[in-house]
Amino acid sequence: MQSPKTTSSSVDGKGLLLAVLGVLAFSLTFPATQKALPAFDAWTIGIGRAVVAAIPAALWLLVRRAPRPRREHLFPLALVGIGIVAGYPIFTALALEHVSSGHAAVVTGLLPLATAAFGRLRGERPSKLFWAASAAGAAVIVAYTLREGIGGFSFADLLLVGSLLTGGLGYAEGGRLSKSLPGWQVISWGLVISLPLTLPITAVSLIASPPHDVSAQPLIGLAYVSLFSMFLGFCAWYPGLARVGVTRGSQIQLLQPLLTVGWAVLLLDEKADAWTLAAAVLVLGCVGLAQWARLSATAAATPPPAADQSTPHQQDRVAAGRS
Q1: From CA 204, how far away is CA 230, in angstroms rounded?
Q2: Domain coordinates in residue numbering, the chain
Q3: pLDDT, tens digit (0-9, with 9 covering 90-100), for 65-111
Q4: Which of 178, 189, 172 is nearest to 231 (CA)?
Q5: Counting Cβ atoms within 10 Å, is residue 287 exposed (0-12), middle (13-18) or buried (19+)?
Q6: Full-model pTM
């Protein structure tokens, strides 16, 4: 019995909704990190969150009896681990020791462009308008950091550039891999496979800089970045990218800088001056123009996301029914 056909519009609608849910979860990452910083070292927050998130990820893989990744999936999963399990979290946690959430949100406003650029390296082909808008957005970010940085471009801004590169890599590779694996499996396996790296680093960080003055707010902040920023957000984000394409889907990240600035004002009592708001709006416009730019005619059509691979036995039954 054949399942009902799904129209491309319904698939795109669901993909956009999933991407919005992912960005909503990510938008609170910087304020939650700053809530955790008074009690926990940046390395504990940046890497330790992956260790905490690996627990529900491993349990969910066991409950769903997910098959082990195939050999061709291991390298992309390693890139996911380098990008969003280790690289992006630690770069942003270290930077937030020196700059505000609002400052970090504006600088990392180019993350959609970094994601799309890595998508281009993996086969998607944006138009010239995309790259022109990207250059304009980069110019805004450079101007902002030169004005805000102490004595120019600061070390914290360099860390945020590192977060752009690693985050874009992890987002793009995970979205691409979610076309052949369910998105929740991509992030779950990425967390589990990274444990040999994240667990000893976290242990050393806890020994070298034990938590101090632990209260409810730092614990809530650490719990949020572990469960939502590191795990549940990606369970929505990666399937969203798989459905609508990495370049197109990353446009939803347009909302993230402004949402983060808003959360920082509400939760951290930060001051959003006119320059920060203007820079955020300009980046929003540049990235929006870039993301809506038409892809070139050579871009390949995006295949539907992979079906949930529950067990090898069920897969054999499906294959037998089709033969």
Answers
A1: 21
A2: 17-298
A3: 999 999 999 999 999 999 999 999 999 999 999 888 878 887 887 78
A4: 189
A5: buried
A6: 0.77
